[in-house]
Design brief:
It is built from three helices and five strands; from the N terminus they run H-H-E-E-E-E-E-H. With 91 residues, the chain is α+β, with helices and mostly antiparallel strands. The protein has two domains: 39 residues; 51 residues, IHF-like DNA-binding proteins (HU Protein, Chain A), CATH 4.10.520. The strands form two sheets. Strands 1-2-5 form a three-stranded antiparallel β-sheet. A two-stranded antiparallel ribbon has the order 3-4. The longest helix has 20 residues.
Length: 91
């Protein structure tokens, strides 16, 4: 499902205009991104948790040369699905 299809589905289910649905979706996504970037955790009961995780520095291999390279530590966004979400998917 593309973003435009999601906006249409939200508008239909919430019985609001597509413009309002797009504003709500965009605001939600922006809020989640900004909160996770700042290190906050967002828990939506029944849906899941958005958080920031730390990846340790590690040694990798350059595929072009085969030489070992050091990959720096980094922060990555992560999502863990909630139990209710998992249960619906597994039906």
């Amino acid at each position: 499902m593309k973003k435009s299809e999601l906006i249409n589905a939200i508008a239909q289910q919430a019985e609001i205009s597509k413009k309002d649905a797009e504003k709500a979706l965009t605001a939600t996504i922006d809020t989640i991104i900004n909160a996770v970037a700042e290190g906050d955790k967002i828990q939506l009961t029944g849906f899941g948790t958005f958080e920031q995780r730390q990846r340790k520095a590690r040694t990798g291999v350059d595929p072009r040369t085969g030489n070992s390279i050091e990959i720096a530590a980094t922060k990555v966004p992560a999502f863990k699905a909630g139990k209710a979400f998992k249960d619906i998917v597994n039906k």
